[in-house]
Design goal:
Layout (H helix, E strand, L loop, with lengths): L1 E4 L2 E4 L2 H8 L11 E4 L5 E3 H9 L22 E3 L1 H10 L1 H5 L7
Antiparallel strand pairs: 1-2, 3-4, 3-5
Length: about 100
Amino acid sequence: MAVLQSNREKKLKLQDLNSFITCKLCSGYLIKPTTITECLHTFCRSCIVRYLQDRDDNKCPTCSILIHETNPFEMLRSDQTLEDVVYKLVPALQASKPCNVF
């Protein structure tokens, strides 16, 4: 991958971007990236939904901020732009994306 930098191209490796496009819960590439509006941490939709369903405290798995006292799902937002970036960087994901994602 090449990035334009002051009229010069700089080569980037996908591994250099992995920390920005992987889920902290499953360690895989973000599938249906979903952001917690309180803290802006992003996870795969299925990962964060499962995480919140399995817990009673409704806290972000990264920073422990309270998401919402009674219904944390109200504070989750899909991130279509990030999903587009992930699929652009890792095109094989789009061809193999699961159909049973929330």
